[in-house]
Amino acid sequence: MTQKIVPNLWFDGGAGEAGEFYATALPRTKANIAMRYPQEVPEFQKGLEGRPLVVDVDVDGFRFTLINSDDTFHPTPAISFILNFDPLLFSGSAEAARVALDATWEALSDGGTALMELGEYPFSPHYGWVQDRYGVSWQLMLTNPQGEPRPFVIPQLMFANDVEGRAAEAAEFYTSLFDDAGLGTVIPRPAGGVMFGEFRVGEQWFSMMDSDIAHEFGFTPGVSLEARCADQAEIDRLWEALSAVPDAEQCGWLVDRFGVSWQVVPENVGELLKRPGAYGRMLGMKKLVIADF
User: Fold this and answer.
1) CB-based burial of residue 179 (10 Å sphere; 0-12 exposed, 13-18 middle, 19+ buried)?
2) What is the pLDDT of residue 42?
3) Taking Cα atoms as reference points, which of 157, 177, 145 lies closest to residue 79?
4) What pLDDT does residue 246 have?
5) pLDDT at residue 148 is higher than 80
6) What angle do CA 158, 25, 50 make, to 5 degrees?
7) DSSP 8-state secondary structure symbol assigned to residue 154
8) Rounded CA gap, 8 and 11, in Å?
9) What SS3 class is residue 209?
């Protein structure tokens, strides 16, 4: 699967350990350290020299990036990840899919917190929502093999509090920014807003919903969406369209009009950062400029 947008998860010094955890807790998953901190780092990163900086986690072909940093940010349930246990992914066996779901639930629940207990719901015969030991939220769902196929991993954005009721607006905005993107199923709420909806960017599916419940959390840089760009022109275009909070602009990071954090980066950012002194130069940028690496 070609993945245009890569979710990035922020960890307080434990990204390497978390990568190992997910490689055992999630089915069809592997992890590897993709980049380490250089031996020369700014004062605020002292103690991280040589430690993992970026850990890549591949879940059935879907890529996550774990960022190893400090405790400035934390993931919240505002962005969670639906895991679709479709029997078709388990040789057509509903029992095998259910067993795999239960094993994954047990692993993610170890040291975590159930947000919706595992059980039967109107939308799924076997479903649960859990926040794992690192604060990352997962929705495990036994799906209908007769329905339209969906990827195993689907990120879900929940619009609540001051952005409640704007899920459809956000989906329309995001899909307008990318080629080969569009809306999928949208189930409205009787009182307005979206009960459940989907949108697609290339081969990637995303889910969105509005919540009129008052939550103590919202979108944070603890989960950001990394948009990988082919060239500087694409970086410039997405940056101009997405960035809505000038004070949040740093090192390719931005916050959009809905409070969602993005990273707009060149596709070959890993290669660019291997240039002598490139890491320090990147820290001084807001929008990333390829020629300045």
Assistant:
1) exposed
2) 80
3) 157
4) 97
5) no
6) 90
7) E
8) 10
9) strand
